[in-house]
Specification:
Helix content is about 55%, strand content about 10%. It is mainly alpha-helical. Helix 2 packs parallel to helix 5 and helix 3 packs parallel to helix 5.
Length: about 120
């Protein structure tokens, strides 16, 4: 995906990691499959995309990485053990990447979209 974007546009200025899966269940009703499907895929996707994008941004001396997170991972939300764990992991990655990549001109930022009641 990263190489396709660079081939099409000549450079990579920004990567927005915006993925999530929701399978809401309370802790006592959640299966391992529900947990694994939600907890492992989004952080893994962020890791894979970012590890391929970061070298290009480092070489260019510029780039931005934006990771979407959620209040479920920072403050908790009923029935979202799996989703909260995934989004907390993504926030952790964001903090680490900000330290690692900020020196190269490619800082990482987390964005917590505000929830709007229906």
């Amino acid at each position: 995906m990263i190489e396709t974007a660079i081939d099409a546009f000549g450079q990579l200025d920004i990567l927005v990691n915006n993925a999530g899966i929701v399978r809401d269940r309370s802790l006592v009703k959640m299966t391992e499959e529900d947990y694994d499907a939600v907890d492992r895929r989004p952080p893994e996707g962020n890791f894979q995309r970012t590890r391929h994008a970061a070298p290009h941004m480092k070489d260019a001396g510029y780039g931005r990485i934006v990771n979407m997170t959620s209040s479920a991972g920072l403050r908790g939300n009923f029935g979202q053990t799996n989703y909260g764990a995934a989004k907390a992991a993504i926030m952790g990655m964001t903090f680490v990447w900000a330290v690692e990549l900020g020196k190269t001109g490619s800082p990482s930022t987390g964005w917590l979209p505000p929830a709007r009641p229906g």
